[in-house]
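Give me structure tokens for this 185-residue protein.
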Amino acid sequence: MSDPDETLHVHVFSHAEDRPPGDVLGAITELNDPRVRFASQFIGSFQVYAHLEVESIADAQDLANSLWPQGIRTEMGVEIKVAQRGPKRGSPDHCALIRVRPRDDPFEVLDRIEARFEPLFDPEEYTWGAAVITGRGYDLLVDLGRPTIGQLRKAILDELREVEGIGKTDTSFADLRVNAFRPEG
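Here you go.
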């Protein structure tokens, strides 16, 4: 990537409607494309997620077009503003991606999420990331990671849902021990 200010982070949500989620994940990873920074199977409203780092919207469209002939349909959201930690920049074994429709200005809610979660950050035990993104029906993407699913549920129910301005949420879960594609590690 040439200019970090021009790099776009795109979040891809696939519904895997006509194919098993594992096949969709396999098709994404088999591209062996350096623009794919992370991909994993999830349980929830979307079945496969990928994080792309691209140089332009046309670059993201090119990658989406390469998946279309394989029957992979996606929703994409572009990061508009990222908190100190962005979504899917590392996570313990269990993670949740939460799409949020805020009740308040999304940029103000992003600041509140950052204030709530940054003191809890621990790369082995408690990760988080958040961004204002484009999307259908939601403006924020929050990534929470914990070593166990029980700790993760507690983080969502007792910590995220308590942030002022959090409205409707849409959560999907992953166990990264069994299906995460992380080209850098």
